[in-house]
Amino acid sequence: KALDLEDLNEEDIDEDEILAMLSPEELKELQSEMDVIIAPDESVPVGQRQKDQTEKPPTGTFDHRSLVDYLYWEKESKRMLEEERVPATLLPKKEGNKSTKCLPPQEAPEEPETVEPNEKLPEKEERKIGKLKIPKLSLNNIKITSRPSGNDTNLESTLDKIRKNNPSITEVNLNNIENIPKEMLVDYVNALKKNKYVKTFSLANTGVDENISFNLANMLRENRSITTLNIESNFITGKGIVAIIRCLQFNETLTELRFHNQRHMLGHHAEMEISRLLKANNTLLKMGYHFEQPGPRMVVTNILTRNLDRDHFFILK
């Protein structure tokens, strides 16, 4: 109902009645216009002149246990960060028994798992184009494979050659191959235990899980030829990664390890364990993983730098 305000005097205007006729959206719009037109009252404290901008939907119920765990790992990360900034000679020595088992003991409670989209690793393709001369595409120049991934590795024959220690097989690339049976992945890992010629083993985006990661850990304990291991974009948990890192104290051959982009978050405890266990390894030079905690990140960076310096020293020597 519209009111003819021109025929009414100021005394006859009922402001409460007009405001009662407005919808909540109209009231908010009126409040915004009033904030712009009317100058703030200088007698009112500054904190009370500002409009409330804190309205937002609740993020969830309060979880005291999660908060305590988060504060604990934050404290441990800061402590580790400070220790890395202090010269090693000023730190008290810590004695500990060296574990001889690759499988992890009882772990702390795992961090909440978050599901992230599983990303496929793109195939690296290089195309050389001459100066202003672009060759025409033809079916003869296109490599056709039976798999959508484009990886045409013959699983059965490659596995057989690995078992027979064939010197022609120095790189095993299973990246992005769909639906490889878990039993076949285990057979590949077990066959590499005694193999002497394979240098690179790539299992990115092949569905490797925690059980297979334990087999990988035991394989690295015995294998003396693999220098690069790629297990990115899989389903390995923090326990599986820690088991692999634990076995690196018995491996002096592996120089590059890549395990980024797992479907499950590793968690703060796993990152702490990784940084602690890597101190016993002197040969790892590259690691493909981004640490969430600054403490373990700095520790691992210093360890890899130490190993690089050590490697360069022996080369010069």
Automatic annotation (TrEMBL):
Basic and acidic residues: compositionally biased ranges: 84-98, 117-126
Cell location: Cytoplasm, Cytoskeleton; Cytoplasm, Myofibril, Sarcomere, M line
InterPro entries hit by this protein: LRR_dom_sf, TMOD
The protein, known as: Leiomodin-3
GO biological process terms on file: actin filament organization; muscle contraction; myofibril assembly; pointed-end actin filament capping
GO MF assignments: tropomyosin binding
Family recorded in the similarity comment: Belongs to the tropomodulin family.
Swiss-Prot/TrEMBL keywords: Coiled coil, Cytoplasm, Cytoskeleton
Region spans: Disordered: 41-63, 84-126
Keyword Cytoplasm tagged: yes
Keyword Cytoplasm: yes
Source organism per UniProt: Maylandia zebra
Gene Ontology CC annotation, any one: striated muscle thin filament
